Amino acid sequence: MGRFLNQGNRKFAEFSQSKYFVDKTALINKLIQKDADEKFVCCSRPRRFGKSVTADMLVAFFSRGTDSGSLFEPLKCVKDTLFRENINHYDTIFVDIQAQFGAARFEHEPPVQYINRNIVRELREAYKEIENPAFSGSALATVLTEIYYRTGRQFVIIFDEWDYPIREYGEDSPDRKDYIDWLRSLFKNSDAKEYVRLAYLTGIMPIVRTKGQSAVNNFMEYTMTNPMDLAQDIGFTEEEVQALCERFDVSFEQIKEWYNGYYLNGIAMYNPLSVVRALSCRQFQQYWTTTGTYGDIEDLISRNFDGLREDVLRMLSGNRVPVTVADGKNDLQSFKNKSEVLTALIHLGYFAYDPDKREAYVPNKEIQEVFYQYMEDNGQEPLSRFMKCSEQILSAVMEGDAAMTAQQIQSVHNDFISSIEYNDENSLSCTIMIALISAFRYYHRPIREFPCGKGFADLVYLPLASQPNRPVMVVELKWDKSAAAAIAQIKDRQYPASLRAYAGEILLVGIDYDKKTKEHACLIERLTNFACQ
User: Fold this and answer.
1) What b/e sequence results for 225-237 when a residue is b if at least 16 CB atoms lie within 10 Å of its CB, and e otherwise?
2) Nearest CA to 509 among 478, 485, 475?
3) Which of residues 379 and 322 earns the better pLDDT score?
């Protein structure tokens, strides 16, 4: 067992004994069935989404010289003939690229030279019978080619955080250029299809098909926007999360609200770190986002391409925005337009993506919370100033100050979301959701067209379980009518009667937009004991 070569099954064996272990071994069956043109696999997911654990599982399965039969026997993977033929059958090279770049800096050695030298050294020790003086100074591709043609043995190559140098280093960085050249020599030479049994790369960002990254453009790519057949194999599915909640007696509904929202091929997927921390601590809060920094958000949103901030506000309020994901970048540096920035934030996990509607959205309360914290920590940033404005609007609503509410909503219209055209009630609904964006600290995500009474309320805000004294807010919207007409509709259609179970008080909020004057009017009533229905 080496540092890079055939690490064995210790890491996965320890992980499989965890009380929060979720069996994802079905991935193995999918990978070993890949044909010659599919065996170069690049899988990108956000931070802490289970990529490294999956890599450890593959190391345990493939590593030659290890006996992992008893480890995999009770797990879900199908133990067919192909499975048995492949288990512990291949020399397996595993490299955590980010960690080894850091180690190379500590050793004051060029990273690629450092990684290549150490892997080749272990191969030379493992294949002492092959007398080849060139091994000592050769590129890894040369050594693998020589071993394959001398012995017929193929290799499994697994790189975790493969995209780290591309994400973090500038285009002019010699270390980045060396790394790309090294990848090209390893995976794009004419012998690679011969000596590679499986190449499996994990990272945060997807491959960008440009000349600078042609080193890996022969890989099958599985991403947050196009996961293909590996959608449910990295991360927790909703069924897996529900089973964990039942086992540890934790509210699945709260887990779902805080950490759900990523749908890959229609399958609801959860970030494993956040779920496990919530199960362990029995508290619902930020977990995954605290493992990184706000730097990604600040660096990307501060560019404000084409009204990017307005789109961020729309998503934080519960709305969605169109995005073209084909224009994605993965170096987090060279962006040309808003879609590229939004695509990067989707791959980083800050937004989710609906491929059918081609829309981006904020997936869950954890992500809302990280944006809220970011805005609190950056008081002079435009988003932070808007959040303070929204808090004032929410306070005015709570206090029943209809005139102030109308005035503040008008201010939001004029100063922050001027790109929205108020030509129907749907646009007005979007505007109100943005104006009340600060409500997410106290309320569930606003529900549009909420079925209650004898119709559908335009917007309903239900208080969080942690906010039992907050009233339900029922918002009815009118266009070229009156706020009083909106309140009358709430009562006439008996909306409050359907909301008895949610709170002791209900705020009726009627809002009208006058097309001619382009002004808003508001009327607020507070119901207690449902005296008026």
Assistant:
1) bbbeebbbbbbbb
2) 475
3) 322
- The token pair at 3 is 């540092």
Rounded to an integer, what distance in angstroms lies between the CA atom of residue 142 and that of residue 370?
47
Cα separation, 421 vs 431, whole angstroms: 10
**Which amino acid is residue 390, in one-letter code?**
S
User: What single-letter DSSP state applies at residue 5?
Assistant: B
Q: Around Cβ 239, how many Cβ atoms within 10 Å? A: 11
Q: How far apart are CA 212 and CA 176, in angstroms?
A: 10
Backbone angles phi, psi at 203, to 5 degrees: -165, -175
HEC-encoded secondary structure of 211-222: HHHHHHCCCEEE
Q: Are 386 and 313 in contact (CB under 8 A)?
A: yes
Residues 439-450 have pLDDT tens digits of: 988 999 899 988
Q: What is the pLDDT, as a whole number, of residue 187?
A: 93
pTM of this prediction exceeds 0.90:
no
Domain boundaries, the chain: 10-204, 236-290, 292-377, 382-528
Cα(475)–Cα(467) distance, rounded to whole angstroms? Answer: 19
Would you call 238 exposed, middle or buried from its count of C-beta atoms within 10 A (0-12, 13-18, 19+)? middle
CB 503 within 8 A of CB 484: no
Q: What's the confidence (pLDDT) of residue 502?
A: 74
Name which residue leads in pLDDT, 347 or 215. Answer: 347
Which of 378, 242, 214 shows the shortest CA–CA distance to 309?
378
Q: Is 461 helix (H, G, I), strand (E, B) or coil?
A: strand
Mean pLDDT value across residues 466-485: 90
Q: Which tokens in the block code for residue 151?
A: 């012995």
Q: Residue 533 has what pLDDT?
A: 43
Count Cα atoms within 13 angstroms, Cβ side, for 22.
Answer: 27
Q: Is residue 92 classed exposed, middle or buried when 0-12, 13-18 and 19+ CB atoms within 10 A define those classes?
A: buried
pLDDT at 120 over 80: yes
Residues found in the chain: 533
Q: By the 8 A CB rule, do 139 and 73 touch?
A: no
Beta 267-270 vs 505-514: how paired, if at all? Answer: unpaired
**Distance between CA 354 and CA 331 in Å, rounded?**
23
Residue 330 confidence class, pLDDT cut points 50, 70, 90: low
12 residue type, one letter: F
Q: Which residues pair with 91 in a beta bridge?
A: 155
Span 10-204: which CATH code? 3.40.50
The share of the chain scoring above pLDDT 70, in percent, equals: 90
DSSP tag of 445: P
Whole-angstrom Cα distance, residue 387 to residue 316? 11
Per-residue pLDDT at 83: 97
Greatest pairwise CA separation for the chain in angstroms: 93
Query: Residue 199 is inside which H or E element, if any?
Result: strand 196-203
CATH code of 382-528, in short, is 3.40.1350
Average pLDDT, the chain: 88
Q: Which residues pair with 270 in a beta bridge?
A: 236
